[in-house]
Request: fold
Amino acid sequence: MCGRFNLRTDPHQLAETFSLLREPIWSPRYNIAPMQPVLVVRQHEDRSRTADLLRWGLVPGWAASLSVGSQMTVVKSETVATSRPFAPAFQQRRCIIPVSGFYVWETIPGQKVKQPWHIFPSQSPVFSLAGLWETWTTPDGTKVETCAILTTAANTFMSPIDDRMPVILSPQAVNDWLNPDAKTEELQATLLPCPDDWLAREKIGRLINSTRNDSADCLTPC
Reply:
């Protein structure tokens, strides 16, 4: 799936990759977890793009509490167009979540502790994950912007480790996903497992297991 990820890509490179209006303010993060701020690329009415910090864990505007976001960090692409919490955002508030790599924990037969894997791009510096965003208003009127990552069935590369994976978009699919005029059928056509050769993986140590750890040591192979 995608319960944790890292973003180590240089802000200048992010601005070039996603045709951003300006370079984002971002320092390398190695262990980004749900409910934390994440960098999100959005396209505006004038077709310009910016990268902004949103809270990871989507909270629909009608939700009673911000805590709902802890249960909505990822969204199944197969049902996103018809699911009540996500359908409005699918139609109107799509985004890209840049990721330098993400983590998956493999269940090992006979072992109580799972093996963490770092999944990272084999051909580019950053993955473009399909995402959704929403705005939730607190009782005192403060607006909180939140987001979620779309997932799909695992491809052949990922399936030995997990049966789900994030939706990773090609540069053309990024344009399609952010296009405000895209039809539902066109959008759903982008929500497929990426080719196997886009991915590389490496076993890493269990330092990544704790969200308190957020340094390059999290990527140390084991």
Observations:
- The longest helix spans residues 171-178.
